[in-house]
Amino acid sequence: MLRRVGSVANRTARAARGCWSRRTPGFRNDVSTVPTRPAPIENLLLAALSSEDRLRLIGDGPPVDLALSQSLSQSGDRIHHVYFPIDSFISLITPGIERAQLEIGLVGNEGMLGVPVLLGINVSPLRALVQGAGHAWRIDAAHFLRVIESHASIRTALNRYLYVFLAQLMQTATCTRFHLVEARLARWLLMTRDRAHSNQFHVTHEFLAYMLGVRRVGVTSAASALQRRKLIRYRRGDIAVLDVRGLEGAACPCYAIDKKIYGRVLGKARGSRQHAGRESGAVRLAAQIAGSISC
Ligand SMILES: [Zn+2]
After folding, report:
1. Which pTM does this prediction carry?
2. What confidence tens digit (pLDDT) does each residue in 191-211 have?
3. Which of 35, 48, 240, 250 could form a disulfide with 280, with the two C-beta atoms 3.0–4.6 Å apart?
4. Cα of 78 from ligand 1 centre, angstroms
5. Radius of gyration over alpha carbons of the chain, in Å?
C-alpha cells in the first residue's frame, strides 16, 4: 500500500529540486558499529534534468512511501505508474516457473522503474519488489508518456538510462552463467550497498538465495567465505560491509563493468549541463563512480 508523505506547502519546491529529506530507512540498521556514508536526497536521473523538465514530469505532488517487500508490479501487469526511487530501492525479478525466479536488476536512486513506458509499452515484463523501504517519486504512466513524447530533452536523457539498463540486464545474463556464487554474492552486496546508501542493510538468507538463483546452502557457503575474509559480517539477515575495497576485489568483474557503463553513458550529460553552468546529479554520480573503481 502506498502512503503519501510530506507537507503540501513544500511540494513545489521539492519537486523542482527533485529531492526529498531522508527518513529512517525501512531495512533494519541494528549493526551500529560500522560508519555509514551521507544519505542522498535526490533521484539522480531527475536531478540531471532542468528544473522545468522535472516539474513537467513529477508535478507538485509529494513522493510516496514504498514499504519493504511491497509488490509494485507482476509480470504481465499493466504499468500504471513510473517510479523514481529516492532512498528506496527495487528488485526486478523474472517471471517464475515454480520456484525458478531470479533477480536480474536492482533500481535505486540512480534509475527508474518503468522503462517499458519509454518504449511506449504499458505492460511490465518483470516482477518489481521493494527491497529497501523509503521514498520514491511516482508518476502516472499516461502522463509520463505524454511528457516524454512532447519534450525531446527529457526523452533523450531517459533513453540514456534505458541503454544502461539494457546493458546491465545483458551483463547479468553473463554473470549468472559464468561467475561463481561467492563472486556474484559480493557483486550483489555491493550493488545493494550502493542503493541502500549504507554499509548496513537487512536481507534474509532465503531472499539472498532467491536473488542469486541458488539454493540456500550455496548462499551459506558463499557468505561464510566472505565473512572469513573479514569482508562482511552476516548475522540473522543483518549484513555489514566491513571492507568495501576488499569486497570489490572479491566481486566478479560485472560490478565494475556496470559502473563503467553508467559513468560513460550518463556522464555524457556533463557537457550540456556544465554548459548551462550547473553540474547534474547524474554527472556527480558518474564522477563518484569513476572515483570508486580502479579499472
Ligand atoms: Zn558477474
Report:
1. 0.77
2. 999 988 899 988 877 778 777
3. 48
4. 31
5. 18
